[in-house]
What we know:
This protein is of the alpha+beta class and 363 residues long. It has one domain: Catalase HpII,  Chain A, domain 1 (Beta Barrel), CATH 2.40.180. 30% of the residues lie in helices and 21% in strands. It contains 8 helices and 10 strands. Strands 1, 2, 3, 4, 5, 6, 7, 8, 9 and 10 form a 10-stranded antiparallel β-sheet that branches. Strand 3 (121-128) and strand 4 form a beta hairpin. Helix 2 runs parallel beside helix 3 (150-159) and helix 2 crosses helix 7.
Amino acid sequence: MENRSMPPKDLHAVLPRLALIGAVLAVIAGLFAWAGGWLTPARVSGGSIADAIEANTGKVFAGTRRAHAKGLCVSGAFVANGAGVALSRAPLFVAGTYAVTGRFSLAGPNPGASDGRNVFHALGLRFALPGGVEWRMALDHVPTFIVATPADFQALMVASTPVAATGKPDPVRMAAFLAAHPETARFMAMMKAAPLPSSFANGTYYSIDAFRFTSAAGVTQAVRWQFEPEDAFGELDKSKLDQMPNDALFDEYIVRSRKGPVRWHLMIVPANPGDRTDNGTIAWGPSHRKIDVGTLTLDNAATETTGNCRDLVFDPLILPPGVAASDDPLLAGRSAAYSASFRRRAREGAPADPLSIHQGAAK
Length: 363
């Protein structure tokens, strides 16, 4: 048999390359392990955030999103007016019409919870762009978030977990958290005082986090954005929230959508000097320039059983060319938590949709 062993001289030459390849593979494996939370079980990951939400709730609603579980599918189109081309080379800003799939939802893990709660309204959007490009957004009707980092969110879930004796969060533990996180106390005070939109159709929806736009000329700038409604704002009576029918907001939107298309204008808000791009709890001031880059029209509503949004993940880091994440750590945390939530509910199978059961909504 032919001797295929490598001469010592050649072996010495190859060994450094083999060592380098091995080191690279080890680093890659380590990154996967770190991302999965295997090396440091106590660290914050998408899975640990989902765990904290489940522990806070005390119950897993199988097959549903761990947050924003109650939702309604919507679809329509975005008509770009061309004004956004100067800001970003994203295909969405080229004058034209682009298909949109979306989902309205309310904060909370219970898909059957009453709409009569003082929680924020959310809108997820998926824009289908030429060449198979997508842009996904996760928007809320409030301009800021309750915490600044994924670790703070996980800690908030732990601090606000109800205790068995009272069914409410431990007041000492919660007070300690709020003392250490004044931004959370500010958010809670804002939610208590600010008006709640009377409809999904008349709320403004905010990006919350900052992003970076890059134009075709290579100019990069920080921005936030918001969808401003054409429907006149209406306010819910917070003193009567507990008297609202269980699915009042969803039923109202279905009725409203049957009367005609619902429209919002996409307003891009470039940062001013000194604006924070790394902290979603800090609102930018009112003196910002706003550029109207097009109109979002939603003309169809369907339950998650009959619609096409149930399995969509509205990951804010699915971005087109010309748009990039800022240095806000919430973006990576939201992306990881949404992914972990999707993996869990996919394993659990499709749940019964309470909106489909309720009076045959959206027929």
